[in-house]
């Protein structure tokens, strides 16, 4: 539909959402209009009511979708109706719709001894693929950056003389993440080898064919190697982001500093990691206190 295409352009060029986010919004909206029968009737956006949105949510839940997924899809519809209201096309009927309640799930993370075992003892191989895979794991764990942020890194973003890496996050916001001495050394060796094999390529991480890595490939790499050291059901790049934040908190890092490194817009997004550290404190208490 032309109106949705116009809205998608608004997200891309004015809000500057990532390609992945824009694609999700489009899929959610197309699912919604399919449900309410837009293409089979003459219904207009001004005729959509909150009951249509609620019925759609119920259908999603009946199909087995989690409350978290339904809330994400509802957020797409709410954003679209806010746009319609700003453009004086329709009233924001989605504004009164509340999503299903979700239980708070603690972020899962890899234990320190497990990640050290992987990075210190496992042989990734001496060829470019092996060096790259190890660097993907190391950079994700030692910087806490997102999968999409890692895929977008270029050689020019690695500023060894300043001991930082420049990261372009959500909505094209840039931040600088500090590098450890060990990571600087490993990055320099990796970049020299990459430029030897693929001279002139600006992206930091490349496929064996010399093309920039993509999110699904990064996921496969992380899933494979985390599976060697942990039995966690989730073994994704985001687990390494959780691991980074949790390990820093466990070692006394300042919450606000972690917020800035992770690129969170507000502190509440970072505070979820305190639950993981509190679980560790409770375990220590139960083991140490004579009356526990």
Question: What does this protein structure show overall?
Answer:
With 292 residues, the chain is mostly helical. It has 2 domains: 2-96, Tyrosine recombinase, N-terminal domain (DNA polymerase, domain 1, Orthogonal Bundle); 112-286, Orthogonal Bundle (hpI Integrase, Chain A), CATH 1.10.443. It is 57% helix and 4% strand. It has 13 helices and 3 strands, in the order H-H-H-H-H-H-H-E-E-E-H-H-H-H-H-H. It has helices at residues 2-14, 19-35, 50-62, 67-86, 112-121, 128-143, 147-151, 181-197, 215-226, 237-250, 255-262, 267-270, 272-288; strands at 158-159, 164-168, 174-178. Strands 1-2-3 form a 3-stranded antiparallel beta sheet. Strand 2 (164-168) and strand 3 (174-178) form a beta hairpin. Helix 6 (128-143) crosses helix 10 (237-250). The protein is globular. The model has no long low-confidence stretch (mean pLDDT 90).
Features:
hpI Integrase, Chain A; globular; three-stranded antiparallel sheet; 292 residues; 2 domains; 13 helices; single chain; mainly alpha; DNA polymerase, domain 1
Distance between the termini: 63 Å
Structural domain count: 2
Q: Identify the CATH class of the largest domain.
A: Mainly Alpha
Identify the CATH homologous superfamily of the largest domain: Intergrase catalytic core
Overall structural class, as computed from helix and strand content, comes to mainly alpha
Largest sheet: 3 strands, antiparallel
The geometry reads as globular
Helix content: 55-70%
CATH architecture of the largest domain: Orthogonal Bundle
User: Which percent range describes the beta-strand content?
Assistant: under 5%
Q: What's the tally of helices?
A: 13
- Taking all Cα atoms into account, the compactness measure Rg is 23 Å
Q: Taking strands numbered 1, 2, ... along the chain, how are they ordered across the largest sheet?
A: 1-2-3
CATH topology of the largest domain: hpI Integrase, Chain A
Chain-averaged pLDDT: 90
Query: How many DSSP E strands?
Result: 3
